[in-house]
Design a protein that fits this description.
About 5% of the residues lie in helices and about 35% in strands. It contains one helix and six strands.
């Protein structure tokens, strides 16, 4: 896991279990989060893209893109599902919204 600076995340369209939980979620959002590395791509709800940049008044707007990491995951586990939201600042509207959908 790695804490990433505030950056843009985009919903990842796929056919895994997380695809069922994305209706009603924003297409993109900015979040400072602990990202999980090495998760299956079909379990990633939000991902960075080549357009994702670090958003900071202190740091340069470098690329935040890392296709092997995700801040929000959702997967089948046993007879149910488990989700992960790595938002460290509990941004208003993002954490609660994701927890309801994930």
């Amino acid at each position: 896991m790695e804490i990433r600076k505030l950056s843009s995340q985009y919903i990842y369209p796929q056919s895994g279990p997380s695809a069922q939980s994305t209706s009603g979620l924003p297409e993109s959002y900015c979040v400072k989060a602990v990202h999980v590395q090495g998760a299956a791509i079909e379990d990633m709800v939000y991902i960075t893209t080549s357009d994702s940049k670090i958003q900071s008044h202190v740091f340069r707007p470098d690329s935040a893109h890392n296709p092997e990491q995700a801040p929000v995951l959702f997967t089948a586990f046993g007879n149910g599902y488990v989700g992960y939201v790595g938002d460290v600042n509990q941004e208003e509207g993002t954490t609660a919204r994701h927890q309801c959908h994930v």
